[in-house]
Design brief:
Length: 361
Amino acid sequence: MNLKHLSEYRGKEVCQKFVEKIYMAKCGYIRLMEVCGTHTMAIARSGIRQLLPQNITLLSGPGCPVCVTSQREIDQFIKLAGIENAIIVTFGDLLRVPGSASSLQNERAKGADVRVVYSPMDCLEIAEKHPEKEAVFLGVGFETTAPTIAAAVIEAQRRKVSNFSVISAHKLVPPALSALLNNPKIRVDGFICPGHVSVIIGARAYAPVVDIYRKPCVVAGFEPADILQGIFLLVEQIENAAPAVAIAYARGVQFEGNKKARDILSQVFESCDAEWRGIGVIPDSGLKFRDAYRNYDAQLKFDLHVDAVEEPKGCACGEILCGTKTPFECPLFRTKCTPEHPIGPCMVSSEGTCAAYFKYL
């Protein structure tokens, strides 16, 4: 239990305490899944996997929003970039994700107007500055970013900006957990739940996972001590056969979440079925525009039909997102697929599992 490499982090003594408690538990062989790309990066960077006893395996789940965006949706984004007088506005992680024939980065190199911003409100400002063009925001993300996009849509309606729209490729986390547990090929004994998402939806959103599937859920923060505390609470619940929803991130998350953010989200969007890379279509796991805001729906505004395509040959991103494979089991990892030449989105995103393994393991 060498914690020397954790010396740069705060709370080394707290980390030591939780590691010792984890080693003392008698819970047999268990598989825990972190459902957050930020957790995946933090776990790899701090070496937490190497600290744990051999009977505890950490799996990386579908916690990277760019990674779970389907191949068809990526191709729709690229098709948008080819529309005349369109300004495509996005967060940076999407630029280099390969579609079936190109990427947003390649389209920008060919002359498409693709811009990277930090807020969807920036897209609204761009639309106002260029009334002769169509500014389209690529709405990718979980419950963390979706309320900010909804707020931008509400503001666009208030300002009567008609050349602003959003393609909604948002995903909702709790339905994905149920989909994983309904798959007999996937074995997960407990979830390290995402801190950022849980700030919005609240820890109570994971209650069905406990009530229906009898799997413990712990919301954790992003410091090593937070993550180790979350793992310990999961191990303790499994050892005592007492699954529950717990919070190891009380400074950021409450059981009820952020009602104001959820109200803004539900004002603009309602749930719908959504396609997840590697998992397929999950009922009520996406967001579509309500009728009152349909004028801002890029899916209705533009012809975005693209044929369904298979994921890149040999790429294991789908299985990695489900926790049935690790990057080391992908034949392309560190050979044909690298950060400089990514084949799948898990190697592109700053929250991708393959990117984390490549950099730290």
